[in-house]
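Progress against Task 2.4 (sequence-to-structure conversion) is shown through the following example record, which the project officer requested during the mid-term review.
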Amino acid sequence: MHPRCICDAARLSDRICSGPVRDASALSGGKRSKQHNFVLLIAKAARPVPPFLEGDDDDDDRSQIMYIACGSSRYTLSPAEASARIETLGSAGRVRDRNWAVLHRSPLRLEVWGETPGERKHGPLKSASVQELVNEILSRANPAGAQIKVSHGVASPSVAGLKSVMSEPMDHVISYDRFWKELVGLLQDPVKSAGGIKDSSIRTGMGPADEEFAVVEVLHPPPLKVVTEYKVNKAQGWVYSEAFGPDGELQEKGWAVFHGAPLRLECWSETHTVRKFGPARRDPMQYLVNAIMKRVAPAEAPGAVKVSTNAKLRCVVSGDMGKRIDFERLWRELIHVSMHPQRNATMISSEVTRTSDTEFIVVQTLQSGKGKGKGKGGKEGKGDKGAAVTSTATLKYRLNKKRGEVYREAYGQMGKLDEKVWICVRKGPLRLESWAEAPGVRRYGRDKAQQVQTVLDAVLA
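Structure tokens generated for the chain above:
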């Protein structure tokens, strides 16, 4: 379960029932229910009501869903479910943060929670799995039909700037109703194979049986049990899944979205992001705090301001720095040591490039293996030293002084994103907080396309 907060809804009830939200008709074209006013109220709570982008002007609130964009945010409002999803987008269209708000009745109350998403997977592996799925469906529904190809790395028609796995148009080989029926049947009773799923069973009771269910799979080899929970919505044309490993830990989230005119299937997934706030984050943060304090109070011994792990906040936290420094000085020193890190045995040089007032890039030259070699007889010792191995690491920083936040992305030698780090200056008392995330990889390449291709071929065969 995600940490969530519930508000006291007495005032919320009064506000919702007091009348329609201003400008609601500009969005929807007419009078709306209290549920509809509620989801618009959620959007207004964050910022003024944004312009209407997409939606059904029908007054039937049971099935309407609206997509609203406002600057760097995207709202998905569902009056039927009295819920709203708000996604914060980066400059390239990438989803940086998701927040949900749901209105509950009896008693009337508001539930809110948020998530930081993992990396979107839309490469060969993801494409291969979707191809296999499509092939299987088409082999059942239309064996004589043409094959449908699934491609990876395709620009998403759902969200600009993102990529997905996409099928070719399928109208000429299968209808949406038939494809949906076969898809749900296949999810509930997956294909068994000698080197894959040995057995499976279905669980219900989480919600309406035709909308929510879980599938328990026994994999062989080795004999492991995994669980995938599904939420499906035929009217809106989407499938959402969460896959849990043998230890019950969330491993991956998946999405499948149908598009009409022509009928196409869009898929992507996200690997569960692991938040790091233990020794692997505490030690580098202690090093950073020591570097700052060396500039601010040179007479103090290293470690005078301790950095510790706070499991409740899920981050590492420094001790009180307010007696030695104020916010402005701490912010300046934090930026300085980030731009000009101290050299050490591993990091032998660095170069900084300022790209804007709020962004800069630091390229570090790293060295490992120096001083080790083999002596006589091939034994490791004080003989000839082995050649040092050098590599580079690229650190991209983004600053937000108003929020007191430094965000950093670390890329390895081959340009792969290795880690995301947040460092925040907090007040009361003045301190530093930090945490890191190890991102997953979105799958949308050839392997994923091949899996979808296999499913389509099987359905059409």
